[in-house]
Amino acid sequence: MDLRGLTERNGRRAALVTALSLLPMVVVAATSPNPAAQEYPHLVVYEGAEGPGAGKHIVLIAGDHEYRSEEILPAMARVLARNLGFKCSVFFTLDDEGFIEPGSSNIAGLEALDTADLLIVGLRFQDFPADQMQHVVDYLERGGPVLGIRTSTHAFRIAAGPFAKYSWDYAGDEYENGFGRQVLGETWVGHYGTNHEQSSRLLPDEDQATHPILRGVRDVHVQSAGYRADPMPGSVVLAFGQVLNGMNADSPPDPDKELLPVAWTRTYEAGDGSQARVFTTTHGASEDFLNPGFRRLLINAALWTAGMEDSIRADIDVSLVGPYNPVVFGFDGYRRGVKPADLAGWDTPIMAPDKPTRERQ
């Protein structure tokens, strides 16, 4: 890159940092205008005033086709920001008109990862523009901690080029099965249970009962059915999934389904050889976040992954912040006509119930 190009790139990066520093005034009051919305349409920022996360920056990237990461991740960000003091930058994939389009791969602004203390991903089969993917790769190279939910085991599908090794099905021995396997600990293997007919109960591993992530976690029941998973050697399984014959917490277990890992920790190797923390769960549909036990699991996991296990208490406030109206998850069933700026502030709905989930005929 020539000097002029480098100067322009640094200028853009400085502009992003400046805009992000101004955004807290915007998102705290939902009725305020958002001056950064036009320049950074993929982004909404929530910033808390105090708590153990004060001064820490979390980047969350929503972009899956089915399980509504565009709902669960901003809801999670609000809890982390309002209740724990983090600054949370939430990115969404958009359509050409600037509306949220889950899984579109249309994303910008990931320079925010340059200042991130934690990356949380809810992705599926993404092929980001090369300049945006480079920021993800740079983050991994420097050993940034990662928290991945549900389809993030198969976050990327990149057929060719310099980032092909991050693809979920990459066959090279040096990075087999890509980001999912090498960072999160598992790639896409297959369903284990039938969505909308079978829900799941998460059973903590008794050998890990004192792990900080499990502190205060109980009665975890989620709407998403299970995934098959055999985490990479060295992973620490925190919870196993019990597939239920029904959608209620008291539905009976499926006698034909064994218990499989659904939540674990591990580390991956950064570019300098250091080890970076990871938490992965194969659950994480937006409806799952309604369960207080699952919310606590994710919030505890964010703190632990960021190296803040001393801040994990059994009584941390993990209550929802603002209206949360998750749709029944499914392909193409997302709320239409929503821009990230519509989610700014603590009290705007995620998402507005009057937004259609299908194209109007």
Features:
single chain; 361 residues; alpha/beta; Rossmann fold; 12 strands
Which fold name corresponds to the CATH topology? Answer: Rossmann fold
How much of the sequence lies in strands comes to 15-25%
Q: Name the shape in a single word.
A: globular
SSE run: HEEHEEHEHEEEEEEEH
What would CATH call the architecture? 3-Layer(aba) Sandwich
Major sheet description? 10 strands, mixed
Compute the CA-based radius of gyration. Answer: 19 Å
**Main sheet: strand order:** 1-3-2-4-5-12-11-10-7-8
Which CATH top level class fits?
Alpha Beta
SSE-based structural type: alpha/beta
**Helix count, DSSP H or I runs of 4 or more residues:** 5
Q: What number is the mean pLDDT?
A: 91
| Count of discrete domains | 1
Topology, please?
Blueprint: H1 3-28, E1 43-47, E2 57-63, H2 69-84, E3 87-92, E4 118-123, H3 130-141, E5 146-149, H4 178-184, E6 191-192, E7 200-204, E8 220-222, E9 226-227, E10 236-243, E11 260-269, E12 275-281, H5 292-305
Parallel strand pairs: 2-3, 2-4, 4-5, 5-12
Antiparallel strand pairs: 1-3, 6-9, 7-8, 7-10, 10-11, 11-12
